[in-house]
Amino acid sequence: MDRRSLMGCLGAAVLLPRAAFAGDFAAFVAALQTRALAAGIPEEVVDETTSGLVVNADVIKFDHHQPEFTMTWAAFSARVLNQARVAEGRAKYGQSSELLAAVTSRFGVPAGPLMGIWGVETNYGATQGDFGVFDALTTLAWDRGSSYFAGEVISAMRIVARGDVPAEKLLGSYAGAMGQPQFMPSVYLSTAVSFYGSGTPDIWGSDADSVASIANYLAKSGWVPGLPSSEPVLAPPGLSVVGTGRENVRTIGYWEALGVQRLPGASELPDMTPCALLLPDGAGGQAFLIYANFRAIRKYNPSDFYALCVGALGRMVLA
């Protein structure tokens, strides 16, 4: 499409925060190509992965309407923690329990958070996204003026240059996240593993490589064995929200002294275990104690809603 044409641009212009003229985007791509060549990416890979790129209005639309920023925790969790996802997770866990045990043995991360991330990210590998990674990342780099996303384009080029995956098969989310774990290209390069040592990590088709790569990410993020990430609790009516929140770390004993009640089946932990009280919908809504491993999950995705859903889905699947 000729984006310099007014009639051709009317639909996209509603979605773009600044003028989407082909010349502007072409100049951005040219500068990105220069940066990639300076970073040592072979010229043929740069040409292959950037030739013919245009602004993807769908990427920008999704980027500007992320559901966590427009939904309450109650609505968001109901959408993510649906019965179908839980049922699929239980079936997948039944098929993968030996693999998960082996991954836990190697990385120290239990099945719960692995199943939680796997399920929330891609429905256990079933929904990996169909956006071209180079298309999506370049659009975001241009639209946001983002050095981060531009760097991810170059990381994706490195994947192609190494011969890991052909450029046309690098598909993922609108944000350029790839495979069953939804790794950004730089994370793939630093963290993806071949669990059985067969060579190139296959986070697209191999459950073993995908789950092990998730575990490796959490282990590198400081996962503490034997500690949950979060747990639902009952907060007393009238409890002040002052002093709650992720940054206000106290102890289990402190919160229990204020009337917070842990539920039957919760992990046995010492009263002095550090934790914070999170009220994602404010006073009167659901309440959670969150632990050090909550921070490890937030390194995967820096969202309280996301980390709570990962913990909850893992508990539901393994229940």
Description:
Among the domains are: about 110 residues, Helicase, Ruva Protein, domain 3, CATH 1.10.8; about 60 residues, no CATH class. Helices cover about 50% and strands about 5% of the residues. It is built from 14 helices and 7 strands. The strands form 2 sheets. A 5-stranded antiparallel β-sheet has the order 4-6-7-3-5. Strands 1-2 form a two-stranded antiparallel sheet. A hairpin with an 8-residue loop joins strand 6 and strand 7. The radius of gyration is 22 Å and the shape is globular.
Supply database-style keywords.
319 residues; alpha+beta; Helicase, Ruva Protein, domain 3; two-stranded antiparallel sheet; disordered N terminus
Topology, element by element:
Elements: H1 6-13, H2 22-38, H3 43-50, H4 57-64, H5 73-80, H6 83-107, H7 111-122, E1 131-132, H8 133-144, H9 147-162, E2 171-172, H10 185-191, H11 207-220, E3 230-234, E4 250-251, H12 252-257, E5 261-262, E6 274-278, E7 287-290, H13 292-300, H14 304-318
Antiparallel strand pairs: 1-2, 3-5, 3-7, 4-6, 6-7
Fraction of helical residues: 40-55%
Give the spatial strand order of the biggest sheet.
Answer: 4-6-7-3-5
Q: Which structural class should the secondary elements be placed in?
A: alpha+beta
C-alpha Rg, in Å?
22 Å
Low-pLDDT runs of 5+ residues are: 1-21
* Count of alpha and pi helical runs: 14
Shape: globular
Task: Estimate the strand proportion.
Answer: 5-15%
CATH architecture level-2 label of the domain at 6-65 and 129-178: Orthogonal Bundle
Distance between the first and last residues' Cα: 52 Å
Q: Fill in the CATH topology of the domain at 6-65 and 129-178.
A: Helicase, Ruva Protein, domain 3
The whole-number mean of residue pLDDT values reads 92
Under CATH, the homologous superfamily of the domain at 6-65 and 129-178 reads: Bacterial muramidase
Extended strand count? 7
